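User: What would this chain look like folded?
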Amino acid sequence: MDKKKELQKVVGLIRADIRVEDNNPSTTYPKAMMTSQQMGHNTATVNCGGAYGGGGQYTRKKALRVLRDERFIKYLDAFKAKAEVEQIFEGGNTGFQVRIRYAE
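Assistant: Here's the prediction, encoded as structure tokens.
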């Protein structure tokens, strides 16, 4: 089982639910991110829209939504990973994302 593809699949399902819940069919967030650099550090992130799109509390709400989703929790268990919401800063704005850390 490929952890990157599985993460993209799970986050895609969560995004589909959020599109319906928020009545925003064009949103591209949350978005799974696992670059080669992140893979080298055994990490990944779930981008929740950045500090510009909707403001800090909006991105925090999305990050918490991902973190609490049953499908995401099962993913973490399957890949022996832990996740937390972390604050990010972009151009003087505050946002939130989910940081995933995989067991070594």
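The radius of gyration is 13 Å. If you want, I can go into more detail on any region.
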